[in-house]
Prior knowledge:
It is a single chain. The chain is mostly helical. The protein is 70% helix and 0% strand. It is built from eleven helices and no strands. The longest helix is centred in the N-terminal third of the chain and has 21 residues, at 58-78.
Amino acid sequence: MEKTKKSNAKSKAISATQIIGNYRDYLLSEGKQPASIFKFCKDHGFKEAEFYQFFGSFEALEKSIWKEFIDGTRKRMEADSSYQAFSTREKILTFYFMLVESLKTDRSFVLQQLKSWKNPSVIPSFLKGFKTSFEEWINAVLNEGKGTGEIAKRPFLDQRYDMLFWLHLMFILQFWSHDDSANFEKTDAAIEKSVNLAFDLIGKGVLDNAIDFGKFLFQNSKN
Length: 223
């Protein structure tokens, strides 16, 4: 019995949250990843095997941090009883505002990671889980919008709306990372204005009129 108790106490010596906290501190203090998982664990007083109970690599650890930004934002937002009554536009606006609030609490880490992203055309490994979680959420919300008529159904085009919003999210991240206004008020304004523009494009209205007019010109050019 005594051995079992000691074993259980030992297994609870380190948690994923503690490992992440130690990793953040190291990354921000040193400006780089630790030399090895073995040395990182030794320096923080736990065994390498305990690290692998939660993460397979430093890259996997970073992915989990970024993925939690999306998943945590979504959980907090959907826990609000009024959320389901929101329009598609309101859901997307709320998501962005809440995500930025979450990023604020970890701004130094986020900026450090974004600074290492040198090639805009290649998604860095730490953002892959973040992107997957975001796309799962945005696709569900966009499909709801199509069902209510808030978002226009356009063959081929509406299948790429998730890509539009992924690029939009990248714009918001980059804008926020360079925003030096008090409480990031400029980012809030950029979110609202850019979401309104996006809905001008994907909602029924200007773009549909332009498409109809283009069809009209094309059809009449044959006469």
